[in-house]
Amino acid sequence: RRCDRHPISCTPESAQGVNRTKHHTDLYHTDAFIIRRGQNFQMGISLSRPFDPKNDKLHLILKTGPLPTVAKGTQVDVPLVESLVGGRWEAAAVKQEGNRIQLSVNSPATTAIGRYQLTVETTCVGGHAVSTHDPANDVYILFNPWCEEDTVFMDSEEERREYVLNDVGRIYYGTQDQIGQRTWNYGQFDDGILAICLFILEKSGTPPSGWGDPVNVVRVISAMINAVDDNGVLVGNWSGNYSAGTSPTVWSGSIEILREYHKNNAAPVKYGQCWAFAGVFTTVLRCLGIPARTVTNYSSAHDTDVSLTTDVYLDENLDPINHLNTDSVWNFHVWNDCWMARPDLPLGNGGWQAVDATPQETSQGTFRCGPTALTAVRNGYVYLKHDTPFVFAEVNSDKIYWQKNADGTFNQIYSEKKTVGHSISTKAVGSDERSDITHLYKHAEGTEQERIAVETACRYGSKAAAYSSSAAEDVSLKVSMDGKGPKMGQDVDLSITMVNSSAEHRTIVLHSQRE
After folding, report:
1. Which residue of the set 138, 327, 356, 387 is catalytic?
2. What's the CATH number for 157-460?
3. pLDDT digit string, tens, across residues 228-237
4. Considering only the top CATH level, what class is 9-142?
């Protein structure tokens, strides 16, 4: 029996088999061989003759990326062993019938995700041979939130069903007083979407050797969902003129956007705004196995100078100095949370991480944001990566008013401490109700813990020396009006009540401004 006739066709038995159920990949609308890393899977191998374990050797070869190498983990040689140990690449024969053997295969929970070419190498006394690669046998390896050793592990089955397996969700918009909602079809399991998600990763130009780390992967995807600086999926447009493409309000799901991007060979799709960026981001993350949700922040600040404050500059007459007022507060802004451990950060910073694909500010030279640990945001630990100062300012910055002096300097004349970051919302687990998750991003407004977090954060901001002390908090001001309210064209009588709760004399200067 000549060895060069020993191999064979390689026939993975996963598409209709037990793997799809055990690996929670049965919802993907494809017959592709899809598994999750860190978990045992079964596959069959057909050979040109019966396998002789005493004289024959067999191992699997998995390759991903343009230049697969063993040293970088993009080529994996899976040995055939007598018994499985776990936590490593290994295969064991569990059944043999004629020319066909059934293999039980383990993979480590750190495996790089992606599409792997699968071949089989066999060796016997007469030599060795390698099977011909068949794209139909390629193996898609995903993150595994069901595996405790995977950094994206989530221990609640109810939450896994919501944040990984649910393909429809709600996205919130409007204002904190009038919260609106729209249904969004994520469609992460639709035909071709998994291939498109991997296509996006490939178009990023980043090495597949780094695709085993979810921190790195979400940063790559955050950059690739927007079209700025890398020809990503969506072009942002806030001008109101959408004649060259599709109005952002027309989209009701991610599938059409992703398919258009793929069909046009990575030509960015026109147009999107924050909810569309976030909706597509959720689709890609869930498709690849990273638990994710779409999040809306009301009265969302955009800090442009890393001051960790939202600054308003006024001239000597208290009129706005428009060219200096680059910070802003949006009625609402939509981004994402994703779930993962953070071994790169101090203990306690795992769990939900904020990520944002809307192009606002650059992070290490690229328009992307996160992952930012919500625990770090909540406590003002803005020195922890990635992009914690920006996310902190979005949800908990003080709005500070500065007046220009005759010598060109500015003095702080007023601050609003409860203007930014309200009713942070996401779809509830297992229902279509709105879940308020503000408490995950910030301590209760006005509490000592919340003020400590703000002061902690602002020590690292660009205006740390100018940040107001809490000494002025001992004077309160209340504006009230008698009657049913103002009437058009008539004067209004206002009552202003000030209370000095300190034991010291205070001199008060009142400023008013019509908006």
Report:
1. 356
2. 3.90.260.10
3. 999 999 999 9
4. mainly beta
